[in-house]
Design a protein that fits this description.
The protein is of the alpha/beta class. It has one domain: Rossmann fold, CATH 3.40.50. It has 7 helices and 10 strands. The two termini are 18 Å apart.
C-alpha cells in the first residue's frame, strides 16, 4: 500500500533570481518502508522534505499522504493533518529541558486531544518502553545523554501513531554508537510495527542499510 505519493513536484526560489530547486519529482513510499533521501548539499533534498512534510506549500504538482490529497489545503488544515499523521525527528531533539521525559513525549497527543490525559500518559509510557528508556520517564529531559534525548524525540514522534515519521538528519548530531542505535530503532519500527520512515541523511552507510535509498542531484531524483 502506498502511504505517500508525489506527482511532478516542481519548486522555484525567486531570490535573488528565479531558480528551479525541484524538478519533476515523482516519488512513491510504501507503508512500513524505511526510506533514506541522500545527495550532496544543495541538491534539493531538504527542500523536498519540507514539501513532503506539508510545511512548504509553494510548489507545483501534487502531494498525497494516506490517500488524502494535501495540495491546495489551508495552513490550518495542514497543521491539523501534520499533528495527526506525521511525526518529526530532527538533528537536534528540541525537547523542553524543564519538562520531564514523559511530559515531552505527551505534548503532541495533548495537542491532538484525541485521548484522555491518563490514556495519553499510558501511551507515552508504552512508546518509551519500545525505545528502552521507560526508566527515565520522570527525569528532566536535560539530565539525559544526547543519544537518550534523541530516543525521547523518537518516542514523541510516535505518540500519535503517525502514518509517517520524517527525520531531518536524525543522526547528524550523534556519535557512531548512538547513530547505530537510532538506525536499529528505525529498522525495528518499520519491520515490527509497520511504521513508515523517511529520513534525509548525509550518512551514506545509514542510507545504504535502509530499505529504500533515493538519491538526488541538482533538484532531480537520479537513483530510486
Amino acid at each position: 500500500m502506498d502511504i505517500l505519493k508525489t506527482e511532478s513536484i516542481n519548486k522555484y526560489f525567486y531570490d535573488p533570481e528565479k531558480f528551479q530547486v525541484l524538478k519533476s519529482i515523482d516519488l512513491t513510499v510504501k507503508k512500513g518502508e524505511f526510506m533514506s533521501l541522500v545527495g550532496k548539499s544543495g541538491c534539493g533534498k531538504s527542500t523536498l522534505m519540507y514539501v513532503l512534510s506539508t510545511m512548504d506549500t509553494d510548489y507545483e504538482g501534487n502531494l498525497e499522504i494516506a490517500g488524502e490529497k494535501l495540495t491546495g489545503k489551508t495552513q490550518n488544515e495542514l497543521a491539523a493533518f501534520r499533528n495527526a499523521h506525521i511525526g518529526f525527528v530532527f538533528q537536534f531533539h528540541y525537547l523542553l529541558p524543564e519538562f520531564s521525559v514523559l511530559q515531552n513525549v505527551m505534548i503532541p497527543a495533548l495537542k491532538l486531544n484525541r485521548f484522555s490525559r491518563a490514556e495519553i500518559e499510558a501511551r507515552a509510557m508504552e512508546k518509551l518502553k519500545i525505545l528502552g528508556i521507560a526508566e527515565h520517564a520522570r527525569k528532566q529531559s536535560s539530565k539525559l545523554s544526547g543519544g537518550q534525548q534523541q530516543r525521547v524525540a523518537i518516542a514523541r514522534a510516535l505518540i500519535n501513531d503517525p502514518d509517517i515519521i520524517m527525520g531531518d538528519e536524525p543522526t547528524g548530531n550523534l556519535d557512531s554508537y548512538n547513530t547505530q542505535l537510532v538506525f536499529d530503532i528505525f529498522k525495528e519500527l518499520t519491520h515490527h510495527y509497520q511504521q513508515t520512515i523517511i529520513a534525509v541523511t548525509h550518512d551514506d552507510e545509514f542510507a545504504r542499510k535502509s530499505d529504500h535509498r533515493v538519491e538526488m542531484s541538482d533538484g532531480r531524483i537520479v537513483k530510486d
